[in-house]
Specification:
- The structure is a single chain.
- The chain has 471 residues and is α/β, with parallel strands linked by helices.
- It folds into three domains: 66 residues, Alpha-Beta Plaits (2-Layer Sandwich), CATH 3.30.70; 290 residues, Thiamin diphosphate (ThDP)-binding fold, Pyr/PP domains (Rossmann fold); 108 residues, Rossmann fold (3-Layer(aba) Sandwich), CATH 3.40.50.
- It contains 16 helices and 21 strands.
- The strands form six sheets. Strands 7, 8, 9, 10, 11, 12, 13 and 19 form an eight-stranded mixed sheet that branches. A five-stranded mixed sheet has the order 16-18-17-20-21, with helices on both faces. A two-stranded antiparallel ribbon has the order 1-4.
- It binds iron/sulfur cluster (SF4) (2 copies).
Length: 471
């Protein structure tokens, strides 16, 4: 089917790149002179166009190529699929043996991240040293080679994140780990991961900022950056554990979610949790998910049911183009059509939001008759748990909600709890980032208990507020 190739002559700069680069010689100079006083570029034999997109990519804005209609694209894919061997399909859930002998271990939060990532199948790590995430990089450098994986100490965090994305497209489960300023540098790459649907895991061991701040001290000051730090603003999956055991479990979950949804998943930790040593129970078998590849299927969304599309590797033989630009389902750039952009962005959001109920995961304690709901994340949740139990002993009607999934945010659950008229109290190792998010969901009183001083929150401080109202 011929492509509709349009040249806007008022935007043509006469660079002749279209004529030089098109492998099918589809452009030529005509005798006509255009509005800019240049020879008009004529489109000849559009039937020969392969849709490679080179002309649109190199032209400084004058050329646009309409994407193939969905039905044509689907039929081409079906033909390609017929030519392939069905048994090449791969991916999905599987049960594997744990890398470690099953049993009880004593390890730090950073060790737990490494053990869980390797167990989940991570075979590529690129990173740049930064406190308090250093032990992850060090241990990965020791362990990766023995497992047939690749470790790269990159020149900076920008290089790390892009290397991770490349490794993921080469077929490897990939990860990086960083903190404060490094996480900020990675944001551009994370937006590319959103747009190009690249599964990967980014660990952010939070420390007190802004900037270098207190590099060795814990904080929860990147809570909103994890969701809203990137350009483009699409939905994110962000997890934050409160113990070393949960760090192990949620690291595996991060890889499973990244592979299932084909998205970057952000695992938050902090300078306290990453260096805390606790016991971790490791079972005999682990359930892990590998990205699905179905030969001949389009490699990009929007999919009809907003699920993740098939993901081939480079070298699988697919006509695979990966771009951060707006693209059609084949991956070819399509930046001129507003509907392609709009459908793509809504799809990237829907991929996560349509499964919000399944993704939201909270620890709940004593909430049935709670007049005060303490909402706490990660390490602050440990302090809050003790304070809530003690306040109950003193007869106060308080309960705890601790979202393990920070995003998608548990809006529905918070709205349900708000119907009793309860007051919400939010202790945070920051100046009050998540209390703001909660106050956007409900009209109830939301009390921030901010502590951005690089220290974990003393549980007696929260108890003092719950019993005496003093912070
Ligand atoms: S590449 Fe674009 S700007 Fe350059 S000559 Fe062709 S149409 Fe004109
Ligand atoms: S998409 Fe490729 S084949 Fe088609 S006109 Fe552009 S450069 Fe030529």
């Amino acid at each position: 089917m011929p492509r509709v190739i349009t040249v806007d002559h008022s935007l043509c700069r006469g660079c002749n790149l279209c004529i030089e680069l098109c492998p099918k010689s589809i452009f030529q100079d005509s005798a006509e002179i255009g509005p800019a006083g240049l020879r008009v570029k004529e489109v000849i034999s559009p039937d020969n166009c392969t849709g490679c997109g080179l002309c649109e990519l190199c032209c400084p804005g004058a050329i646009s190529i309409d994407p193939l209609p969905d039905e044509v694209f689907t039929s081409i894919c079906a033909e390609q699929k017929d030519r392939r061997v069905e048994t090449n399909a791969r991916g999905g859930w599987k049960e594997i043996n744990s890398l470690l002998t099953p049993g009880r271990y004593f390890m730090t939060g950073n060790d737990a991240i490494v053990e869980a990532a390797l167990a989940a199948g991570c075979r590529f790590f690129a990173g740049y040293p930064i406190t308090p995430a250093n032990e992850i990089l060090e241990e990965m450098s020791r362990r990766m080679k023995g497992l047939g994986g690749k470790f790269i100490q990159a020149e900076d965090e920008i290089a790390s994140v892009f290397m991770m994305l490349g490794a993921s497209w080469a077929g490897l489960k990939a990860m990086t780990a960083t903190a404060g300023p490094g996480f900020a540098l990675m944001q551009e790459g994370l937006s590319l991961a959103d747009m190009a649907e690249v599964p990967c895991v980014i660990v952010n061991v939070q420390r007190a900022g802004p900037s270098t701040g207190q590099a060795t001290r814990p904080a929860a000051m990147d809570m909103r950056e994890a969701r809203y730090g990137s350009h483009g603003g699409v939905q994110r999956i962000v997890l934050y554990p409160d113990s070393v055991q949960e760090t192990f479990d949620l690291t595996i979950e991060s890889f499973n979610l990244a592979e299932r949804f084909r998205v970057p998943v952000i695992l938050l930790s902090d300078g306290y949790l990453s260096h805390l040593s606790e016991k971790v129970e490791i079972g005999e078998r682990l359930r892990v998910y590998d990205r699905v590849y179905i030969p001949g299927e389009p490699a990009f969304g929007p999919t009809p049911d907003s699920s993740a599309p098939s993901m081939p590797r480079f070298g699988d033989g697919e006509d695979l183009q990966v771009t951060g630009s707006t693209h059609d389902r084949s991956g070819k750039r399509s930046t001129a059509d507003p509907s392609v952009q709009e459908n793509l962005v809504f799809y990237l959001d829907r991929k996560i939001l349509s499964r919000r109920e399944e993704l939201v995961d909270c620890e709940e304690m004593l909430l049935d008759d709670a007049e005060v709901v303490v909402v706490a994340f990660g390490t602050a949740g440990r302090s809050a748990k003790w304070a809530v139990k003690e306040a109950r002993k003193l007869g106060r009607a308080v309960g705890l909600l601790r979202p393990r999934t920070v995003y998608p945010f548990p809006t529905q659950r918070i709205m349900e709890l708000s119907r009793s008229g309860a007051k919400f109290v939010v202790p945070e190792m920051s100046q009050g980032q998540m209390s703001f998010v909660i106050s956007q969901c409900i009209a109830n009183e939301v009390v921030p208990l901010p502590q951005p001083n690089g220290q974990i929150i003393d549980p007696r401080r929260i108890l003092g507020y719950l019993t005496e109202g003093a912070w």
